[in-house]
Amino acid sequence: MDRIYLDHAATSPVHPDVVKRMIPLMTEVFGNPSSIHFFGRQSRQAVDEARAVVAASLGAKEPEIIFTSGGTEADNIALIGTAMANRHRGRHIITSMIEHHAVLRACQYLEKQGFEVTYLPVDEQGNVSPADVKAALRDDTILVSIMFANNEVGVLQPIREIGELLKDHQAYFHTDAVQAFGLVPIRVDDYHVDLLSVSAHKINGPKGVGALYVRETVKFSPLFYGGEQERKRRAGTENVAGIAGFAKAVEIMQETMSDKQQEYRLLRETMLSIFAESGISYAVNGNEDRCLPHIVNVAFPGTNVESMLVNLDLAGIAASSGSACTAGSIDPSHVLVAMFGKESDRIRSSVRFSFGLGNTKEQIAKAAMETVKIVKKLTTK
């Protein structure tokens, strides 16, 4: 069976050129980058060069990049580290109801530490309103965290407008850009963000490595204690091979971003046109005018998401019901609940397809036709 992978929003295959870049850093350049001898200096050079690449991709300064174990750690540092270091200025935080759990659960932890968190709603298209952010702002608000683009429905949030709102407020502005990085050009100064999270494995880099941009004026407390790595901001020996692979993925990302945008829009149109021509009942979740091109979250009325995913897998198609971080959970998608309410049929009948490296128009057409067959089978009475 020829299997078709349509779950790139959960993780993406590692680009062959990334693998090539990493191998020498696991076999030949193995020194600890904190060591001052030749072997250590070799590794340090690889980390420094990678930092320059990641910083340049965001329009940031090199010292403003902290390498992490991934997006979750980056989000945790941004929220918990910043909140703890600035609690003398206030204890109020603003976020949205559709954030990744790395943000939401960090906020829940902070609530237990005495912070107050305002969770902003979204409309039925998944949009956070800048007016709601403005209304929620208080004198004691120290942090606002709104994701750049949602990982389940792909909706792009009004980050530029929110950044403008916060320019003259004491609150730091964090955005989780893990899903958007690589498909949307991001310059931190253009969006007036103070902290920004990214992850390698969403852009065809290795798992277990990410980065947090921290504007040089931001005060935060480290979460790890031990060595003095990452300028004393993130203790622990750096994942040199992973960091170098991340940088290579970023270089490839920058060279191919425009082509990928066009390619994924074509794949999206291919899938949705087949659904439309088939006569099945379906609805796209999220704002189709402001969305990432590679994510298509679709509700199929009369179906059950578990049955859909099982049947898709049996047909050789990998898709998902939302965030991979909630795999195994019986709870409905918190994103779809926020958009449509707990009683909506959409939270029980929606599937996320996401495109990426290796997908072809022919694959997408086949996957769409197989999906149509499954929907017809499940809805036939």
Architecture overview:
Belongs to the class-V pyridoxal-phosphate-dependent aminotransferase family. NifS/IscS subfamily. Keywords: Iron, Iron-sulfur, Metal-binding, Pyridoxal phosphate, Transferase. One of its GO terms (molecular function) is metal ion binding. It holds the Pfam family Aminotran_5. It is a single chain. The chain has about 375 residues and is of the alpha/beta class. The protein folds into 2 domains: about 5-10 and about 255-380, Aspartate Aminotransferase, domain 1, CATH 3.90.1150; about 15-250, Aspartate Aminotransferase, domain 2, CATH 3.40.640.10. Helices cover about 40% and strands about 15% of the residues. It has helices at about 15-20, 25, 40-60, 70-85, 100-110, 130-135, 160-165, 190, 230, 240-280, 305-315, 335-340, 345-350, 360-380; strands at about 5, 65-70, 90-95, 115-120, 140-145, 170-175, 195-200, 210-215, 285, 295-300, 315-320, 350-355. The strands form 3 sheets. It has a 7-stranded mixed β-sheet with strand order 2-8-7-6-5-3-4, with helices on both faces. The protein has a 3-stranded antiparallel β-sheet with strand order 9-10-12. It has a two-stranded parallel sheet with strand order 1-11.
Give a quick set of tags describing it.
381 residues; alpha/beta; Aspartate Aminotransferase, domain 1; 2 domains; seven-stranded mixed beta sheet; three-stranded antiparallel beta sheet; 14 helices; EC 2.8.1.7; PyrdxlP-dep_Trfase; iron-sulfur; Cysteine_dSase; metal-binding
